[in-house]
Every structure is written in C-alpha cells, then in structure tokens.
Write a structure and sequence with these properties.
about 475 residues; six-stranded mixed beta sheet; alpha/beta
Length: about 475
C-alpha cells in the first residue's frame, strides 16, 4: 500500500534510505506521480490571478509601513532626480561585483539621437579572485586604480585627457572611497537597482522603477519625498527645497513578504538551514540563487520516498546549491519530446552513473516548471505592488500624459531564463486589467549592463558637461 506523507517529516536530508522486502524489492512511501501532483499543488496554489492580486495588496501595505519606519528597507538615496535625456559626454564608470570588477567608458549622446543614445564605448572586466580579496588596507583600492589606469591607457583619447589638469569624472556602482594618483574625480555613487532606473530612464522617460533579478533580487523606485518619514533620511537634512520633490528609493525588495507568501516544506528546510534565516524571505522563494536548491531538495526527497534514480542519490546532487539556474533553463528550453538535450546536459554536468529514464527526466522537468512558475508569479505580484505603490503616492503620473510606466529589468533570470519576462508581462497585464481602475499599463523592458550604464548616467547628471571624445 502506498502512503503519502506530506509533512516535513517526509523530507529526510541528507541521507537516502529505502526499506526492502526479502526479494530486494524496494517499498517507497509514495510514487513519483503522486509526489509530482503534490509538488504542483503546493507550488501553484497561490498563482491564480485573484490570489496574486491579493498578494500584491499585502505587499503594498508592507511597503507603505516600511516607508515610515524600517531602517533596513525603503532607503532614500542621494539621487533626487531622473535624467532628462539631454545629458551628453563620455564618462568613466566602475562596477564592483562579488567576483568581477568592470571599468568602462560610457557615451551619452542624448535620448532622441538614435537607438544607441547610451552605450559602452570601452569596457574591461577583471576577476576578483581570492588573491585580490585577501588584499589589505588600501592595497585593494590600489589594485582597482591600476585596472582603471590600464583601461584608460588603452584608449587614445582617454590617455590624452589624463594629461590634462581637469580630472576625469567617474561614477561607481558600489559604495567605497577611491584614493589614487589617477586624475579622476568620484562624482556619483549608486547601487545596482538605482543604476538600473537611471540607465533605463535616460532612454525612456516613462521609467519610474527598475528591478534586478538574477542570483539575488532588488528594486529601486522614484517616489515623492513626502511619502517617506523624515527619520528615513538619517543624519541628512530632510529635503525642504520646493524643487526637490522626489527621491530614488532603494527598496531592498528581497527582505519583504515574510508573512505574505505561502511556503512549502522545502522552503522551510532551506530557510531553516540558511546562514541568515528569514533575512530575505522573498529572495529565498524566487531568485536564481535559490530556485535550483529548491528543485534539488525535492529531488532528494523523491529519491528517498518515491524511488527516483532507483532510490540512490547521485553523489553530485548531495551537495547543497549545486543545482543552478543554467540547469533549470536547459530543462525548460529542451524542445525534444524525449528530453534528449537536457538528459545529455544533466548527465554530463552532474556526472550521473547512468542516463536517467524519460520518466525521471519528465518528473524533474515538471518540478522545475512548478518552481519557475511560482517564481514568476511571486515576482509579478511584487512588481505589481511596486507599480501600484507608485500610482497611489505619485499624483504626477496622472498629469504627465504618459500612457504607460516602464520598469527597467536587469539580471540573468529576468533577461535570460527561457520565457521568464514574457510570462511575467502576461501576468502583469492580467493583474492591471482585473483591477479596472484606470491605472496605466506597466511594461517590462530589458535594461542590460545597467550597473555600468547607470553609473555613467549618474556622473553625467552630476556634471553640467562631460568630457567629449571625437569619434
């Protein structure tokens, strides 16, 4: 008799065991079909349009509360205006990530000049390996300065400019001081989500917010200053200038939704064993850094309770977070009925002792579809909540004549995962339509390379005129 155990007790990690009869026939608690049906029910229970709209309203209430009190979320930046699109020049832009440093020259030619009004003229990427991470004191910044010098030396016009007394304006997509012997001046500092807003707003005046969805999750939104409590500005003076009406807000979106989202036992296990449990609840449920791990946890349970892979977990899949979004994308992008492309990829990438059967591959693919669909649904509810917040708090939107609001999107999941942005746009259209309250359409637009481009736009906004290169 098959017994289905939906409780957390069914998730025995990391050991994989089964009970055998005398004829060595394994007896499992459930079947893959029944477990898959349970997975699909649990992951899709909150994805109806009406449920997503209710979820959006819960998030909106949380956003408004955190605009008044939270020291961790809804943080006003030092960027108060959006670009006009008239900024011109070439600027030095720097992006520091967890594993890479990118140094670029960014050209701004004006919003209406052409489709290439904002572009990267030259860029050099350097790896931040353990040797670099181990640098102490100013040595790390000296290393960065050296990389900046190398990139500028490779550009003739830049090299000529470095001989002038006037320093080269620079923007950076990260927060730290730069001290070096280079003739540069740090004029703007932005985080990744704010940079995405600025880069997209430079080419599209309807942009008011942007999201980053890759390994992690974040968003920035341009809101009226009056919507934030004075305490949110910390030691800074609360803006009272009549011309300072708005501010770019770093939402720290990943931290929201702890009590809004429904979770499964696999989510609970992931959160309980995370180094920072409950710290970024939304990110743990939908970002690329966690989608693969949720799928892996389901695979582990399926091996133990439903006989996946003959009840033997491949050693490579016993490693936490080994399953990444590239693998998930390979399954979703496989157009062959026998799933041959993803089977070859999966067996090679994870050193499986034997090729999985079609039934096993289809089980994994259907699990991946459920996990990714939930990610898309929850993400759409979050951006709908942000756009609704904008509608509620910024009355200028009703007066500016725009027929839609643009959301700039950057990150590997939103821009590269098969069908992700398209499905989110379709869901978003349904959410806006069902409300029927005259709100503007919300359009998702790709904002690739936004950290570098946004840093360039930020420094351009800080300077009335830039250093102009002759092409």
């Amino acid at each position: 008799m098959i017994v289905v155990n939906p409780s957390l007790d069914a998730l025995h990690l990391p050991s994989v065991k089964s009970t055998f009869t005398q004829d060595v026939t394994p007896i499992y608690e459930t079947t893959m079909d029944l477990l898959l049906k349970e997975v699909q029910g649990l992951f899709e229970q909150q994805l109806r349009v009406e449920s997503l709209l209710l979820l959006s309203r819960k998030l909106q209430a949380e956003f408004k509360q955190r605009l008044q009190s939270s020291p961790q979320c809804m943080l006003p930046s030092h960027n108060y205006t959006l670009p006009t699109g008239k900024e011109h020049g070439t600027y030095l832009a720097l992006e520091v990530g967890g594993s890479t440093l990118r140094v670029a020259l960014v050209d701004l030619d004006g919003r209406s000049s052409s489709t290439h009004s904002l572009r990267i003229r030259r860029i050099v990427t350097s790896t931040i390996d353990n040797r670099v991470r181990d640098l102490r004191g100013l040595a790390f910044f000296d290393w960065i300065a050296g990389k900046i010098g190398e990139m500028l030396a490779a550009d003739r016009e830049a090299c000529d400019h470095m001989q002038l007394k006037e320093p080269l304006p620079m923007g950076i997509a990260w927060s730290f001081p730069i001290e070096s012997n280079l003739n540069i001046r740090l004029d703007a500092i932005v985080n990744d989500s704010s940079a995405a807003v600025l880069s997209r707003a430079y080419v599209d005046s309807s942009t008011r917010l942007a999201v980053i969805l890759g390994t992690g999750l974040n968003a920035a939104i341009h809101l009226p200053v009056s919507s934030l409590h004075e305490s949110k500005f910390g030691s800074r003076q609360f803006p009272t200038n009549v011309e300072t009406t708005h501010v770019l807000v770093n939402t720290e979106l990943s931290m929201f939704g702890k009590h809004a989202f429904r979770v499964t036992r696999w989510d609970e296990y992931l959160n309980a064993h995370h180094i920072l449990p409950d710290y970024q609840p939304m990110e743990y449920l939908l970002a690329g850094g966690y989608m693969g791990e949720i799928v892996r946890l389901i695979i582990v349970e399926a091996v133990e309770t439903a006989g996946l892979f003959g009840g033997r977990l491949p050693p490579s899949l016993s490693i936490p977070f080994v399953l990444d979004t590239r693998t998930l994308a390979a399954f979703e992008a496989d157009v062959y009925p026998n799933l041959s492309a993803s089977c070859i990829y999966f067996q090679k990438e994870y050193d499986l002792p034997a090729a999985p059967t079609w039934g096993e591959m289809n089980f994994i693919r259907q699990v991946i579809l459920s996990v990714s669909r939930r990610s898309q649904g929850y993400f759409t509810a979050a951006i709908h909540a942000l756009s609704s917040l904008l509608h509620d708090l910024d009355h200028r939107l009703l007066e500016n004549g725009l027929d839609h609001i643009c959301i700039g999107c950057d990150g590997s999941v939103i821009n590269k995962y098969p069908g992700y942005m398209g499905r989110c746009q379709a869901l978003l259209d349904q959410l806006v339509h069902i409300e029927q309250d005259g709100r503007k359409r919300v359009v998702l637009e790709s904002a690739t390379e936004s950290a570098v481009l946004g840093a360039g736009v930020a420094v351009a906004m800080a300077n009335e005129s830039g250093w102009t290169l002759q092409a």
